[in-house]
Amino acid sequence: MTVVLAAAAGLFAAAPASAQFFLKPVNLAGAPVTGAEPGMVGPALPGATGTELRAALVWNLRAALNVAALQCQFEPTLLTLPNYNAMLKDHAVELRDSYGTLEKYFVRTNKNKKDGQTELDKYGTRVYSSFSTVSAQLSFCQTAASISHDALFTRRGQLGDLAQARMAELRASLKPWGEQFRSTSGYTLPPFGRLPAFGDKRCWKKDRYQDKKCGAVI
Length: 218
Fold this sequence. Notes:
Blueprint: H1 2-14, H2 50-71, H3 80-90, H4 92-108, H5 113-130, H6 137-152, H7 159-172, E1 204-205, E2 208-209, H8 211-214
Antiparallel strand pairs: 1-2
Helix pairs in contact: 2-3, 2-4, 2-6, 2-7, 3-6, 4-5, 6-7
């Protein structure tokens, strides 16, 4: 048992500090996007300019990190809530300008301002819904936490660069992913047996476990 525990401790010590859920999380890094790629900004935005697509990416990033702030609090060390609140403060101007750009897009592509506002509201709801996940909560929360951390160190006015660089990764995290650790040496941990019955006095005599009475633990 000592050998097993020592080997397990070595694996956990080698794991990255950000690996709250996996010894080795999946690598979801993708190429930078423009927003024109299918599904990258949620519902399609026909006729959108490059500036408008960048604004949509920023708004998608905000929505995703908002969802993470709400859904990922089961693991406080991810800091999704405080990082999201800090991002809102640090990047308030760019977030406001991005929303304004999207507002103008929907007014431009609809009959009047009222219809444009209605479509913008629908778009916002669909974007938020597109980041709601259950089966992939672990990979989404871990990815969103990493991105929200990077947002804190992104210069003001450059949140769009972060959105372009990591939106593909964020979208990919919405699919369920599992443990990626595989031993390259061919060594695998032996299976753990059942633990001793620590609370059963019949199984112990002078601090020694009596496996004849309670069964072997390995």
